[in-house]
Amino acid sequence: MSRRPSSRPNQRRPEQRGETSGAELPGVAYGVLDELIGYALRRAQIRIYQDFLDALAPWGVTPPRFSAMTLICHNGGMKLTELARAMGIARSGAVEVVNSLEKLGYVDRTASVSDKRAHALALTPKGQKALEQITEIIRQHDARISSTLSAKEQSELLRLLDKLGRSSGTVGAA
Question: What is the band of 24 on the pLDDT scale with cuts at 50, 70, 90?
Answer without folding.
Answer: low
